[in-house]
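Appendix C: a fully annotated inverse folding record. The material below is reproduced so that readers can follow the format used throughout the book. The structure is listed first as tokens, followed by the designed sequence.
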């Protein structure tokens, strides 16, 4: 999983290797942040630990496409296909993850160099861990990226957040029963993307989606202390239980949009066993970037499907600046004058987190902020093309929503008019401009 990913990244000339010793408190995170968590970096020397650390793996869209063996044009339909046509995984008797098993005197901070990222963070945090549980009704595997605050030795606080996961735990808690969990570190791009698909929405087993996405069965082994399966080739697995009727303060923590999330009481996990490969590589993600790109890709699928029932949609982009969830740009092939407004309604109604959307024509590159700004400036008028919906549901991850508990949503129709009026918006072009080779004129230009 992770090791084959690092080999691919080296072949792609995308992997940076840091031989300078770094401190896991602040310094390691600062290096990742410098590259906006978009450049994969392997830290070979971390102060006070023999364990290597890797971060920034899955934060760049083009690199992520390459690791998934897809491209921008086929991404939406590839993701739709694997959700609709998941494939069986494979249970194997053993794997590299079981090369080392620790079941006594567990002290996570002594075993692994777990980073503290930002000044007011309450502790060090595991930020790239994928939590796996079983659906109590179906037995399907549910995986999701969660953050885990290190409380000391073998105890962590868990921000479980997901409504489905929370409800399942609360039902067990009523019976005074713990929830079996495992935390997985050292995984590849298919495993991460599969974790971002909603089991609640699609009723899928995440491991089966992974198998379809990677084009072969995901190989899994049984855990030692809990009734769960984990990838045979992952780097690190922590086995444990979410303890009923026990909470601890979790946070503050530097969150998705660059603000500190509030401290609150959250359930705790007691880690009973640690498995890891020989010479394990500890995986980190600077908060909270990597899983949000993959999450944004799945949100693009859902946004596209919501829109194509209303308009002739070209492409969608759930934006990086909006945390891969709050803002979107959409291109449409406009057939009727109401299409732009219909697209706004469909987009803002597709997901409660979506706060702002801009609708443009297909001649606008929605991945270029310059083009979007140009379209808004030249093809919209606020009195006619701005749609405001007051007091909708939003997300607590966005602090202006947190102040009020509701969110105003905005759509901008930056499409040009149809018919004769639309002729005034014809873009000036230079014939064959796209074929010009600037190196013929300036051979040494970079």
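Designed amino acids, in order:
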């Amino acid at each position: 999983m992770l090791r084959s990913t690092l080999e691919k990244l080296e072949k792609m000339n995308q992997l940076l290797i840091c031989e300078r010793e770094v401190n896991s408190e602040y310094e390691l995170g600062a290096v990742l942040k410098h590259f906006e968590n978009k450049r994969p970096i392997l830290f070979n020397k971390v102060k006070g630990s023999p364990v290597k650390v890797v971060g920034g793996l899955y934060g760049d869209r083009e690199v992520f496409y390459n690791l998934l063996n897809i491209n921008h044009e086929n991404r939406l339909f590839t993701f739709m296909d694997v959700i609709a046509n998941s494939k069986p995984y494979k249970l194997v008797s053993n794997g590299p993850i079981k090369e080392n098993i620790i079941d006594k005197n567990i002290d996570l901070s002594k075993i692994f160099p777990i980073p503290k990222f930002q000044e007011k963070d309450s502790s060090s945090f595991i930020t790239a861990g994928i939590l796996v549980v079983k659906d109590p009704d179906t037995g399907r595997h549910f995986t999701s990226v969660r953050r885990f605050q290190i409380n000391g030795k073998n105890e962590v606080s868990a921000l479980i957040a997901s409504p489905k996961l929370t409800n399942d735990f609360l039902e067990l808690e009523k019976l005074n029963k713990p929830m079996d969990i495992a935390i997985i570190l050292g995984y590849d791009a298919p495993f991460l993307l599969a974790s971002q698909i909603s089991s609640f929405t699609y009723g899928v087993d995440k491991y089966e989606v992974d198998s379809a996405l990677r084009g072969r069965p995901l190989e899994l082994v049984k855990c030692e202390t809990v009734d769960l399966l984990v990838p045979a080739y992952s780097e690190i697995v922590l086995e444990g239980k979410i303890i009923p009727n026990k909470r601890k303060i979790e946070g503050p923590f530097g969150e998705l949009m660059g603000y500190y999330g509030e401290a609150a009481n959250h359930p705790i996990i007691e880690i009973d066993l640690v498995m890891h490969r020989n010479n394990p590589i500890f995986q980190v993600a600077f908060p909270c970037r990597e899983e949000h790109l993959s999450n944004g890709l799945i949100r693009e699928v859902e946004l596209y499907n919501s829109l194509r029932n209303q308009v002739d949609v070209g492409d969608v982009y759930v934006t990086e600046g909006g945390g891969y969830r709050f803002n979107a740009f959409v291109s449409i092939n406009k057939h009727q004058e109401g299409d732009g407004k219909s697209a706004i309604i469909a987009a803002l109604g597709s997901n409660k987190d979506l706060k702002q959307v801009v609708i443009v024509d297909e001649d606008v590159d929605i991945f270029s902020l310059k083009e979007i700004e140009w379209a808004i400036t030249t093809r919209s008028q606020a009195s006619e093309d701005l749609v405001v919906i007051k007091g909708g549901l939003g997300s607590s991850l966005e602090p202006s929503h947190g102040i009020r508990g509701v969110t105003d949503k905005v759509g901008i129709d930056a499409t040009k008019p149809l018919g004769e009026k639309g002729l005034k918006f014809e873009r000036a072009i230079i014939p064959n401009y796209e074929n010009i080779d600037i190196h013929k004129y300036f051979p040494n230009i970079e």
